[in-house]
Predict the structure.
Amino acid sequence: MSVPFIAALQQSAIAPVGPQAGRIAFLFWSFLILLTCVFLLTIGFTLWALSRHHRGIEQEPLERTHRPSAATDARMTRAIGAATVVTVLILFGLLIASVVTGEQLAGLRYASNAMAVEITGNQWWWEIRYLSDNTRRILRTANELHIPVGRPVMIRGTSHDVIHSFWAPNLHGKRDLIPSRITTEWIEADQPGQYRGQCAEFCGLQHAHMALWVIAEPQEKFDAWFEAQLQPAAPPEDAHLQAGEQAFLSSSCVLCHTIRGTDAAGQVAPDLTHLASRLTIAAGTLPNNKGNLGGWIADPQTIKPGNHMATVALKSEDVQPLLDYLESLH
Amino acid sequence: MRYIVTAFLFLLAGGVEALLMRLQLSFPNNPMLGPDKYNQIFTVHGSNMMFLFAVPVMEGMGVWLVPLMLGTRNVAFPRLNAFGYWMYLIGGLLLYVGLFTNTGPDAGWFAYTPLSGPQFSPGKRVDIWAQMITFTEISAMCVATELAVTILKMRAPGMSLNRIPMYCWAMLVQSAMVLFAMPAVMVASNVFLLTDRTIGTHFSNPAEGGDPLLYQHIFWFFGHPEVYIIFIPALGMVSAIVAAHSRRSIFGYPAMVLSLVATAFIGFGLWVHHMFATGLPQIGEAYFTAASMMIGITSGVQIFCWIATLWTGRVRLNTAMHFVLGFIFIFVMGGLTGIMLAAIPIDLQVHDTYFVVAHFHYVLIGGALFPLFGGFHHWFPKFTGRMINERLGKVSFWVLFLGFNLTFFPMHLLRLKGMPRRVYTYSPEMHWTAANGMATAGALIILIGGILFIVNVISSRRSGPIAGANPWDAGSLEWAADSPPAPYNFAFLPGAVSRYPLWSDPADRVVVTGMRNDRREILVTETVSGEPRFRHVLPGSRIWPLLTALLATAGLVGSIFYFQWYYIGAVLTAIGLIGWFWPKEPVEIEP
């Protein structure tokens, strides 16, 4: 798969691709335009006030010589009163706009064809589980969320350790992932595409390197992807790849990682069953290719200091087969 | 005065940290600071600016200015004031000892659980943060108590409630907020966080039935009023400067006072707008949106009144007024982005992004630091007895103003491109480089502006023209004292015959006679009318406040390492307090 790694607007709140982000962007621009007018008016009046009576500095205090006439005072009081009333009206209008948009966002969730995904925050990667009543159709993967275009998706969020926040700005605002709590958010993509998301709640050393990709694709493509991901990893065909599988299974990799179809069943790190199908490794840190994967396995602490992946001692002759094996896990 | 100087030193330290962060983010994948150092620095920057600079400098200005403005000789409880200062200084040093020994806190100035809890932040870093909070909060509450009592009971004769200078109203409101808000953060940082960390309670541990969000509620119940604690005194300064340099009384005094009081009340009712992304019930969220937007009304009224004052006055455009106008520009913009943040749908997108960083630097630097600098130029003659160089002052204003906007305006744009806060690096593909580069350039310009300001202060203090008591021909009572004021402020206490006593007809002015000058004698007045009630003698300097502060320090710092120091510290502090309050010969006051 060719990897168009990151384009400018793939993590942007002003390039909405779903109804949620679209409504928020509309509200944002409405606020911005109105409030810019308020800002210009305020500054304009301030400058006007300055230009009126600025006649040099060596002056008696007005208090001592004359006070503003009662008429001037009354006019000022009326002006301030009017400005205050206008302020209140504007704020009331904005409040209503805000609440209405909130209601609309809440209303988007009632759809019969919705699907549910659970996202669990971990220091510093995302565990993704596609929920289903049929336990065989529950899919566990990591750092890449595929969704069908035009279908509402409920995100059930929680966390295994500290508070994280799921945020794919092209689709919706943030939702915190809180240990011991379940939060929900609904997203929907109107157009196919690859959208980047990033953790938005400070979660420790590698908060900066905790990204994920949301990949929206047409229903048929999504179904094909989903069925393929449900399959266990295909057994390696040649001796080279078999050596790679052996290297994986005989090292400490298996303590944390799962490759379905093998004995590796660790649960505390990303599922690698279809690692090669993903765009990036290390939670959006590096494009997924053999060179980066080799560097990552050899020295994860330099690429992402403080992360919880151990540096695994590998025999030098095992390295190439292992990398080829992992890159064969489509 | 020592409060103000200490706080300015902490401002410099915080500025250096800010500059380090800006340099780190100036280009993608910068290897200058790793994640660990970056996290320590942004945590210390935030904590430093909130707890060691902004609140103390506002209280320090209050301790210095309020007695002068009220026409009295000192604050009430001068020894409590000394104790507060020592606690503040020790707390600040504790934080920096931590930073320089690589135990600087790294969980953010908010230290959310469970990230800051024992499981995810082992070591002593967060303990040092939490105890630093204890020190500075004790100090803030000491000062708030003495300021509130001073303003309510020690005014010039005749200064009824409706003649109190706007700045003193602001300090009274701020003191009340401190007394309500600070205990909340001590519950959060000390009771929840420290006991979780040191004696194994489970307030925030979900595995044992604790709740990670409870901490956030209590922290923000303090944290939001905290920003008004910083910016309400600044509003008072603006009122003082605008009145003095518009050459007329402030327009709409009752509306201004009511706005301040209303801001304080509403300020306690909108903490949840920091937590919209945690997923709260919708009806509650709408309430907090409305409450947050109401701040726009109270702030708006004050800005309208200032504009009306400028409109009907004759403005003297000196450096202090420049800073006030800069304040109006920046603060209005920050306030309007604040209204955007109050709308939940928008907040969900911009929360914890650089939009918020831009917003709160606009309201805190624009809303508090610019008025403070304006106040510093305005009262410089009173502080030092010499005039500050206006030309250099205006140059430093423009450099700071442009540098500020160049630093923080691009951060609004970074939000549009989805840059979250508190990331120590980013990759070049994100297209965040240009805006970050501009921000870093702006930070360097701010540095130049800061240097110009310091040069101006030092050279003007040495060789500026002698100011005299009232160089601005201003109306409030601090200008009746000598410049710089004698240690006792006033030999003859002035009376307040109007809201601006020095602008009233000289024939009407009065002073109080019959006060003794050979001891710290002050006049206690009636709360509402300001009628004199009786004379009172303030105690002199003693070593006990410092000793008590050191004994309390032993307990607080010791408890970071061994729990038993809580008890030992309590006993030691009690010994200090016994020494402090040991009965003395009653002072005799002849009628």
